[in-house]
Structure formats: structure tokens, C-alpha cells
UniProtKB/TrEMBL annotation:
<keyword id="KW-0961">Cell wall biogenesis/degradation</keyword>
<keyword id="KW-0573">Peptidoglycan synthesis</keyword>
<protein>
    <recommendedName>
        <fullName>UDP-N-acetylmuramoyl-tripeptide--D-alanyl-D-alanine ligase</fullName>
        <ecNumber>6.3.2.10</ecNumber>
    </recommendedName>
</protein>
<feature type="binding site">
    <location>
        <begin position="130"/>
        <end position="136"/>
    </location>
    <ligand>
        <name>ATP</name>
    </ligand>
</feature>
<keyword id="KW-0436">Ligase</keyword>
<dbReference type="InterPro" id="IPR000713">
    <property type="entry name" value="Mur_ligase_N"/>
</dbReference>
<keyword id="KW-0963">Cytoplasm</keyword>
<comment type="similarity">
    <text>Belongs to the MurCDEF family. MurF subfamily.</text>
</comment>
<dbReference type="InterPro" id="IPR004101">
    <property type="entry name" value="Mur_ligase_C"/>
</dbReference>
<feature type="domain" description="Mur ligase N-terminal catalytic">
    <location>
        <begin position="20"/>
        <end position="65"/>
    </location>
</feature>
<dbReference type="InterPro" id="IPR013221">
    <property type="entry name" value="Mur_ligase_cen"/>
</dbReference>
<dbReference type="InterPro" id="IPR036615">
    <property type="entry name" value="Mur_ligase_C_dom_sf"/>
</dbReference>
<dbReference type="GO" id="GO:0047480">
    <property type="term" value="F:UDP-N-acetylmuramoyl-tripeptide-D-alanyl-D-alanine ligase activity"/>
</dbReference>
<dbReference type="InterPro" id="IPR051046">
    <property type="entry name" value="MurCDEF_CellWall_CoF430Synth"/>
</dbReference>
<dbReference type="Pfam" id="PF02875">
    <property type="entry name" value="Mur_ligase_C"/>
</dbReference>
<dbReference type="Pfam" id="PF08245">
    <property type="entry name" value="Mur_ligase_M"/>
</dbReference>
<dbReference type="InterPro" id="IPR005863">
    <property type="entry name" value="UDP-N-AcMur_synth"/>
</dbReference>
Length: 483
């Protein structure tokens, strides 16, 4: 089929379209909506709402419109279906109309547009992957870069074949650096994301059992993460965690120059010392090229020393001075993985409900261990561990026995965690088992006391944030303090 260009009238020549969204609820005036077909729903069903909300345009599949978007005829705002396969003019289309642009595959079209847009600019692109810590690392790397360089970063955890192209479309000529998170659902996905973004710098944080259920083995996960180092150019940089032997081995799988970080004596950016100040952050001493540097960050938990080291390494390969790096670490932006919120009855909640794996849960327990008062670990199921599920929950239960005063185990693997905690020496009366989140809420409402610290953590799919919402302080007393 010969595709012909759509002729734009002068009134459309300078039209601004963006941001790109795939959720109709996030459409704002001027947005580009991409109507995706998923397992549970189809974006074409919501086109009437998209037009009403003010989207400038939408990428649509024409064969879906009749079946799924028949209610478009009831929308008051004008819209037009544009088919690039035919010669068309927009001269008669009102400037305030929504353009429904017909494409064979909306997702593929979005990716092609993102590739074209990426090629128009020359920022240094930093890709970040790993089993845990991608989003926190992305935030801190972007904070360091933005001290001296105009920086674009992925929003939230935009790290997929859908959301990474949307981030790329936010690039402008002003951006000097783009910091992009790269996740994976299957082997080959990170390599595909790298073809879209063309990173010159790659960071691999670690390799763990997350996604083991889908990929089958730790080795398969390591191979999938290694797709980022393998995609880097020879004049680029590969930044690797020297303390994770699977990550360190990726040095042999990249053409790029390698910079390592960690505790290991052979690490290029070496952690010499870390001091935790509990919920007030950490202080670390870092050695590089024969000199040591003392830095502080409000990131909570000793495990975030790795987050800071990765950001330091990124700053160094970009040529930033240590003052800029220190400034970025002191103001690391959003800490999406862990929040400190006031709880009911004078308690403090450590909200780490975004996701969970054995490594990140044990790290969160270490944060809880450094708090005062009674320490309560409210732990839900860790999903996608496959054959390692029982062992992973046993590891977490045993760790809770040494770092918490009380374990509240929630969900299908609660008994596995509870038995491991009991075997590790935690008294039976300090181990509480709940079948679901509602039962945990009811129990904790009766159980918590002033001064308690509660760590609440579980995989995204088990929605532990509902427990946080139920226990969070929402009222203020006469003095204006949260109660």
C-alpha cells in the first residue's frame, strides 16, 4: 500500500501536541492519546471521553472504531478520522478538533514516532536496569545530572515498550541528558528498548529473582539484563555493580568502557564507609582515583549506598565535579520506593509498598531495625519468584526475626514467613498471620500503640498500600498536629 501524507493547513502548522498518554483518565488538553489493546480492556472504548477531555489527537486502529467507539457521535466537540493511506486535507477541519489518526498498530506507530523524535536530538542518554532499585537509581542519577545539565527523566516507573517511547517524546533541543529506566517482561525487551533510546551510558544495579517465574532461572535474568551493556557503543560507558558477580561479569559483554562501583577492593568508585542515621538518611565515604570524599543523602537505609554510588559514577563519566555530585545527593528528588508517613495513634509508618523482592525486603527490614520503639514488620507476598518463592519467603521471615519485634505476615505465603521467623528464634506470640489485607487492617487497628514503627511492604500485585491508607493519620488535633 502506498502511503500518502496528510496535507496540513496553515492553521495547523505550529500545533503543539503532547504529552503522550495511554490512560484516558490522564488526558489533558493537547494530549496525544494512544489507544492500546490490552488483556483486560481496549483504549478505543474510551475515545469519546478522550475527545471530550481535550486531546489534540489519538492514534487509533480503524477497524476498532465501529465496534468500540460508536458513542463518538454523541460527543459535542468536533473530531475527524485521518487516514494517511489516502490523500486528505485538513483545510476544512476546525482548529479545535481532535484528530483520530488511523494506523495499523497504535503501539508500533508510537514507537516509530519515538524513534524519529529521538533522532532529532543529541542528548547523552543514560539507561538504567536491574532487578531492584531501578526507579530510585533513576531519580538520584537525574538529581545529580540536573545540578549542571538540563535533564529529562522517566516519570514514575516509565520503563516499558509503551511508557519509554512516551518519555522519549518529551525530549527537546534543550535537554543535554536523558535518564531512562528500562524494565523487562521477557528476554529481548531491554535490547528493544535500547534500539529506541540509543543509550550511551548504561547502569546495571543488580540481578535477583524478580521475574524468575517468567524467565525460569537467575542466569536467564542476568542474560536479559546484560542486553543493556551489549547495546552500548564503544565510546560509551557501562556502569556496573562490582559486588554482584553476575553484574560484574557483564564487563566482558560490552564494547563500552567500564566503570564499577561497590564495596569490592577492585571497584573504581569504592564505598569505604557508610553510616546510617536511621530515618534521617545516610553518610558515606567514597574513594575514587586515590582520593576520598564524604557525602550525605537523605535516602533511607544502608542499601541506598549503592543508589548513591551509581549516581556518583554517572556524574563522573559525565565530567561533573564533586560539588555538583554532592548537591545532587543532598536533594535526590522523589523517593518512590519508601516514604515515612504518620500513622494513627502516634505511630510511624515506613511505606515501602511499591514492590517487593527478597533483597529489597531485607534491606527495608534493616531500615526498620534502626528505628526506636516497637518495630512491626507487616509483610505481604512477593510475586513472580517462581521456583524460588518458598525459599525467598523463608529468607524474609528469618530476617524479620532478627530485625523486627513483631512480624505480621499477610497473604498466601504468610505461613511460610511465619514458620521461618519461628525457626529463627522469634517468639510465637510475636508472630501474627493474616489471610488478607483486610484482616491485617483489623488486627493492626487493635494492636498498634504510640511509638510503634511499622514497615509495610509487599509486591505491587498484593496492594499493601491499602493497609497504609487505612492506618495513616488523616486528622489533626487542636494544635494542628497530625493525630
Amino acid at each position: 500500500m502506498i502511503r500518502q501524507a496528510v496535507t496540513l493547513p496553515p492553521s495547523w502548522a505550529n500545533a503543539q501536541i503532547g504529552p503522550v498518554v495511554t490512560d484516558s483518565r490522564e488526558v489533558t488538553p493537547g494530549s496525544l492519546f494512544v489507544a492500546l489493546t490490552g488483556e483486560r480492556t481496549d483504549g478505543h472504548r474510551f475515545l469519546a471521553d478522550v475527545v471530550t477531555r481535550g486531546a489534540a489527537a489519538a492514534l487509533v486502529s480503524p477497524e476498532k472504531l465501529t465496534a468500540l467507539a460508536s458513542n463518538l457521535d454523541t460527543v459535542a466537540r468536533p473530531w475527524r478520522l485521518i487516514e494517511p493511506a489516502q490523500a486528505q486535507t485538513l483545510a476544512t477541519v476546525p482548529p479545535d478538533a481532535c484528530l483520530l489518526i488511523a494506523v495499523d498498530d497504535p503501539l508500533f506507530a508510537l514507537q516509530r514516532v519515538a524513534v524519529y523524535h529521538r533522532q532529532m536530538f543529541t542528548p547523552t542518554v543514560i539507561g538504567i536496569t536491574g532487578s531492584v532499585g531501578k526507579t530510585s537509581t533513576k531519580e538520584v542519577v537525574a538529581a545529580v545530572c540536573s545540578r549542571r545539565l538540563r535533564t529529562l527523566k522517566s516519570q514514575r516507573s516509565f520503563n516499558s515498550e509503551v511508557t519509554l517511547p512516551a518519555t522519549l517524546l518529551g525530549l527537546t533541543a534543550d535537554h543535554q541528558v536523558a535518564v531512562l529506566e528500562m524494565g523487562m517482561w521477557a528476554a529481548g525487551e531491554i535490547r528493544f528498548l535500547a534500539t529506541l533510546a540509543r543509550p550511551q551510558i548504561g547502569i546495571v544495579t543488580n540481578v535477583g529473582p524478580s521475574h524468575l517465574e517468567r524467565l525460569g532461572s537467575i542466569e536467564a535474568i542476568a542474560n536479559a539484563k546484560a542486553e543493556l551493556p551489549e547495546s552500548l557503543p564503544a565510546d560509551g560507558w557501562c556502569i556496573l555493580n562490582a559486588d554482584d558477580h553476575r553484574v560484574a561479569a557483564m564487563a566482558s559483554r560490552t564494547a563500552a568502557r567500564v566503570l564499577t562501583y561497590g564495596y569490592a577492593p577492585n571497584a573504581d568508585v569504592r564505598l569505604l564507609d557508610v553510616v546510617s542515621h536511621g530515618l534521617y538518611g545516610i553518610e558515606l565515604t567514597v574513594g575514587y582515583e586515590g582520593q576520598s570524599h564524604r557525602l550525605t543523602t537523605p535516602l533511607i537505609g544502608r542499601h541506598h549506598a549503592y543508589t548513591a554510588l551509581a549516581a556518583i559514577a554517572a556524574g563522573l563519566v559525565l565530567g561533573l565535579d564533586w560539588d555538583a555530585i554532592a548537591e545532587g545527593l543532598r536533594e535526590p528528588g522523589e523517593q518512590l520506593r519508601l516514604r515515612i508517613v504518620p500513622g494513627q495513634h502516634g505511630t510511624t509508618i515506613i511505606d515501602d509498598t511499591y514492590n517487593a523482592a527478597p533483597l529489597s525486603t531485607i534491606a527495608a527490614l534493616q531500615v526498620l531495625a534502626e528505628t526506636k520503639g516497637r518495630r512491626i514488620a507487616v509483610l505481604g507476598e512477593m510475586l513472580e519468584l517462581g521456583a524460588a518463592s518458598v525459599e525467598g519467603h523463608q529468607q524474609v521471615g528469618a530476617a524479620a526475626a532478627t530485625m523486627a519485634d513483631v512480624l505480621v505476615a499477610v497473604g498466601r505465603q504468610a505461613h511460610t514467613m511465619a514458620e521461618a521467623a519461628r525457626s529463627a528464634g522469634m517468639p510465637a506470640e510475636q508472630i501474627l498471620v493474616c489471610d488478607n489485607n483486610e484482616a491485617a487492617i483489623n488486627l493492626l487497628n487493635r494492636y498498634i500503640q504510640p511509638g510503634d514503627h511499622l514497615l509495610i511492604k509487599g509486591s505491587r500485585g498484593v496492594q499493601m498500600e491499602t493497609i497504609v491508607a487505612a492506618l495513616q493519620a488523616t486528622t489533626r488535633n487542636d494544635t494542628g498536629e497530625i493525630a
